[in-house]
Amino acid sequence: MYGMNPKVGLVSFRTDPNSLQRPYSDATARLIDEEARRMITEAYERTVAIVQEKKALVEALAQALLKKEVLGLEELETVLGARPFSSAEMRNIDKYRSGFVSMGGSEEEGGAGEEAAAVDEEEVGSTQQQDEEERDGKVVAT
């Protein structure tokens, strides 16, 4: 659909599911097929190379799964090691590790979370409205 490929070019083909005709020639269709096959083959070869390179880790993970059907985060890190990359943003894994804390505090605080959530929703709605007005060229001071 989106020809972001050196051979196909920077073109976009709209497809109509109700039409039997393609918006490109047979030669272009063959080129698209060849490029798709090439990309799939490259991805497959890269995957096989990574699995072969990490064969010891794959085997260790398989053995750990044979011993215990489900592995948690800590067990995965024990088998595979620490993640090789980090991020400044809070990721789902970071939220998991710190525990999912509601927006208004813990449930033990009794209802404060609902009030804070309602306030946060109002602020989000207000911010979205301001963004829309700025995009329309109307800057509104609040």
Structure characterization notes:
It contains five helices and two strands; from the N terminus they run ββααααα. By secondary structure, it is mostly helical. Strands 1-2 form a two-stranded antiparallel ribbon. A hairpin with a 3-residue loop joins strand 1 and strand 2. The longest helix is centred in the first third of the chain and has 28 residues, at about 25-55. Mean pLDDT is about 75; it is low at about 105-125 and about 135-140.
Instruction: Catalogue the unreliable spans.
Output: 104-124, 137-142
Distance between the termini: 44 Å
Please state the overall shape, judged from the principal axes of the Cα atoms: elongated
Considering DSSP H and I runs of 4 or more, what fraction of the residues is helical?
55-70%
Number of strands: 2
Secondary-structure map:
Elements: E1 2-5, E2 9-12, H1 26-53, H2 55-67, H3 73-80, H4 92-98, H5 112-135
Antiparallel strand pairs: 1-2
Features:
mainly alpha; 2 domains; 5 helices; 6% strand; elongated
Condensed summary:
The protein has 5 helices and 2 strands. The C terminus is likely disordered.
